[in-house]
Amino acid sequence: xxTHSPRKQRKRLYNMPKHHxxxxxxxxxxxxxxxxxxxxxxxxxxGDKVMxxxxxxxxxxxxxxxxxxxxxxxxxxxxNIEKTDxxxxxxxxxxxxxxITNIDIGDEMRKKSIEKKxx
Length: 119
What we know:
six-stranded mixed sheet
């Protein structure tokens, strides 16, 4: 039986192994890429170009610079915040708030996963 308790859902999410969290780090694909690859969403990888759709940086487009599996956040080039000591760091963005506009197909595993996911 699956629980619907928010407390238990959060506990499962926080204690989930990183290789299972990777499946939750997915974002939807733009309409042009959806027709080309035949998939609705893909896991986000470093090097993909994304457009931020929600939040303070809505409308900003940039390259994914980091993927944090532990906290389930991504860093996008250009979406930075200034720390109190004056240095800049990337603003952590949840992957559900972005849309992939350009896919970085760097290796054979990514090609196979896109082909497997396609219609």
